[in-house]
Specification:
About 30% of the residues lie in helices and about 20% in strands. By secondary structure, the protein is an alpha+beta fold. The chain has a domain at about 15-110 and about 120-145: minor pseudopilin epsh fold. The longest helix has about 50 residues, at about 15-65.
């Protein structure tokens, strides 16, 4: 009778420790990369959400034949979110009891910052307003172009430049997004 000796199956403690060490190193490399990827995706999403809100206001103004506006949720700071509304009482300010609210966007994460120029400049009462023809207007009824800049506050230097987006609203009401790091015409004072 021949007796065969069976080999033990499984992992040794050393093999298991080496595997866990390799997995830990891979996680340490991947986690910061995933955070950067996630925040970049959130920045793109926030930019597109703001662009959609602005285009929605323009569309409502043309559809209803009235002024439509986008204003910060708290009336002063874009970082608190924004409200899109049709200005039914023509007061050129948001009145929740009279005006028709189209969209109410909540605040952005704390690692984003939104600033503007022109009528959208952060201050006492920034706004973006469109007339019934879809033109970007100021409260004094002149045409005005403006730019909103979205940046990440957790970056600096060239990484910050790469993670900056702008929403440009021309006098004609045409809106576009751009990246200053790849588009030379994407400046704070861009008009188209």
């Amino acid at each position: 009778m021949i007796v065969y000796k069976q080999r033990d199956r499984g992992f040794t403690l050393i093999e298991l420790m080496v595997t866990l060490a390799i997995a830990a190193v891979l996680l340490l490399v991947a986690i910061p990369s995933m955070t950067a990827y996630k925040r970049n995706a959130e920045l793109t999403s926030a930019t597109n959400t703001l662009l959609s809100a602005i285009n929605g206001a323009r569309g409502e103004a043309m559809k209803r034949g009235m002024y439509a506006m986008v204003v910060p949720a708290d009336g002063a700071d874009w970082n608190t979110g924004w409200i899109v509304f049709v200005d039914k009482n023509r007061s050129q300010a948001y009145d929740a009891t009279v005006d028709q609210t189209v969209l109410n966007q909540g605040p952005l994460p704390g690692y984003f910052s939104v600033t503007g120029n022109g009528t959208a400049a952060t201050g006492s009462a920034p706004y973006i307003m469109f007339d019934a023809s879809g033109y970007s207007k100021t409260k004094s009824s002149s045409f005005g172009d403006l730019t909103l800049t979205l940046t990440r506050t957790d970056l600096s230097g060239s990484a910050l430049d790469d993670q900056t987006r702008r929403v440009v609203v021309a006098k004609t009401g045409r809106t576009r997004t751009c990246r200053p790091s790849t588009d030379a015409s994407c400046t704070v004072s861009a008009s188209q």
